[in-house]
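Budget justification, computational time. The allocation requested in the original proposal was used primarily to generate structure tokens for proteins on the priority list. As evidence of use, we reproduce two of the resulting records. The first is shown immediately below.
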Amino acid sequence: MPELVLILIRSIVSFLLLMLMARLMGKKQISQLTFFDYCVGITIGSIAASMSVDQNVKIVNGLMALLIWGLFPSILAFVSLKSRWFTKIIDGSPTILIQRGKILEHNMKKNLLSADELMLLLREKGTFNVSDVEMAVLETNGQLSILLKSDQQPITPHTSGVPVQMEHGPKILIMDGKLLRKSLGEQGYTEEWLLGEIKKQGASDVKDVFLAQVDSYGNVYVDLYEGTTKD
């Protein structure tokens, strides 16, 4: 078999299996990337790349390695759901770096974190003064979570005692020129009402509308297809 054809076949097989592993391991691999997850991801990618182009690696051996590195972390994640102690062993535990506006130097040293790096993490959260921070926690994925002191937190309707009307997210009623009747019915509107609203914004029919959505107050946003002019 020609070498290029063999590489093509091996690459397709490794790609499909890698995609399957990504689905099995779930979104946590990306959204909450710990150091352990980072190492696992790099290893899986390295195995897939070697299996694609290195003909010294038997495809069966490569597939077995991918399965082990893909399934074993998933098994560990399942065990972690049952045991908090096991979770701490695998992912570690969060560390408090700032408490009541005071930097905890011993915790900084444990995590090999310098003052410059701490300030960088604070600035990424929009905080420049350490004195404004009530608590800062270094999470297991390397992100810094901060709690500002009460006098530094933004005022919200809840804290100020001002009653506000509850809102829901905007709902799409028309997408790509097609009426979403289920969404329209869930909001309690009729097709006649919607047609009247889109006509106010230059559409003569639902087919003229690329996207239409309604907010909590009944305001309708309409985006017409290019070439459709508003009156």
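The second record produced under the same allocation is shown here.
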Amino acid sequence: MNLLEMKEALQAQVLTDELDESVDITLAYATDLMSDALAFASDNCVLITGLVNSQTVRTAEMKDFPCVIYTRGKMPEGEIIALANTFGLCVMRTELSTFDTCGILYGKGIIGPNNHG
């Protein structure tokens, strides 16, 4: 699944300049604890979170995540979007709950980092 397909499946809004359709997404990690994302998520995951602060984007950049998806209709402030643009990250927001977001992506073949080989 690429980022455009993910955007459409989640009825999400892209907030940054970056939406690289060539990025193939197979893993996602959902958490509001960035320490967990740093410790347990695989590189190249999509980060799904309801936490809206700059640490989410900094965590994504450190872990080489191509995209952060904010759930529950959360809207990051302009400096968070600007930071994501600086790092070349895609940031999306969806009105869906974190649970529904994960369920939809799982139904499309996206798995968690601890569920693969």
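A brief technical remark on that second record: The chain has one domain: 3-112.
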